[in-house]
Amino acid sequence: MAFSIGSLTSIVASSGSGPATATRSVPRHALLVSIHDVAPPLETPVRSLWDLCRSRGITPALLVVPNWHGQAPLERAPTFVQWIRTCADAGAEVLLHGERHDEQGLPRSWRDAWRAWGRTAREGEFLTLDEARAGERIQRGLVLFGRLGLRAVGFVPPAWLATPGCWRAVGAAGLRFSEDAHVVRIHEHAAPRRIVSPVVRWSTRTALRAQGSALVADLRWRAQRGATCVRIALHPGDLAHPRTARSVAVALDRWLDDRAAVSYGVL
Ligand SMILES: [Zn+2]
């Protein structure tokens, strides 16, 4: 479905728990598709996901990791970086997705462990980082992107896990978009505008999780079709398991039939 002005509606957006602060046009039924974990070691499955999206006319956002697990610096993968630049030239938005993605060297408190429970296998790099430390990593990532000719429009913490300070660091870095598992933030004022946005995603860590995530994806279709903005977050492992691969294809088709695929820039 093509995006059209006729599908625009004005919503009152709120900045966190405070009073409504701004009115802005947001697509009534928007679909944001992104590919997470865009990193050299995952190039093959990332490209497969890109092709899957393009075959449906979708240009997904790319969530790029500067140095996957501290072992795959982007600057040592010039061909892959060139591919990302080509995608950006074709309209793909680039978002910074952590610096190394994993939690190496970052001990969790019990509170952190509780927040991350069931969400990630130690892939929540920004789970414990305060504003200053989050800002340092974001800044380093943006400097690297600049050197490589990549322009980031936003930041998404790995596993969508971060501290309140991290969101402030995103705004301070001059990035316009960030998101967690529940909302997309638009950093355009001192307090970011937030759009409630369910996210459809899959897990292939175990066969049981693959089955379960496909069921949840189906439930989201039945229960959350009224949402203003729905995200589909694709991960490199999604096509490796037949159950999730089938579910991803079904989800892309049915959500795309129901609403327009848009870019973050439209929000
Ligand atoms: Zn990730």
Q: Report the portion of residues in β strands.
A: 15-25%
Distance between the termini: 18 Å
Q: What is the tally of helical segments?
A: 7
> Biggest sheet, open or closed, and with what strands and sense?
10 strands, mixed
What is the mean pLDDT?
Answer: 90
Morphology: globular
* Fraction of helical residues: 25-40%
Structural class: alpha/beta
CATH architecture: Alpha-Beta Barrel
> How many domains?
1
**CATH homologous superfamily caption:** Glycoside hydrolase/deacetylase
Uncertain regions spanning at least 5 consecutive residues? 1-23
What's the helix-strand series? EEEHEEEHEHHEHEEEEHEHE
**DSSP summary, beta strand count:** 14
The Rg value, from CA coordinates, equals 18 Å
CATH class: Alpha Beta
What does this structure look like?
With 267 residues, the chain is α/β, with parallel strands linked by helices. The chain has one domain: TIM Barrel (Alpha-Beta Barrel). The protein has seven helices and 14 strands. It has helices at 43-54, 78-89, 110-116, 131-148, 164-172, 207-223, 242-258, and strands spanning 8-14, 20-27, 30-38, 61-64, 67-68, 72-73, 94-96, 152-155, 177-179, 183-186, 193-196, 199-200, 229-234, 260-261. Strand 8 (152-155), helix 5 (164-172) and strand 9 form a beta-alpha-beta unit. Helix 4 crosses helix 5 (164-172) and helix 6 packs parallel to helix 7 (242-258). The longest helix is centred in the middle third of the chain and has 18 residues, at 131-148. It is globular, with a radius of gyration of 18 Å. Residues 1-23 have low confidence and may be disordered.
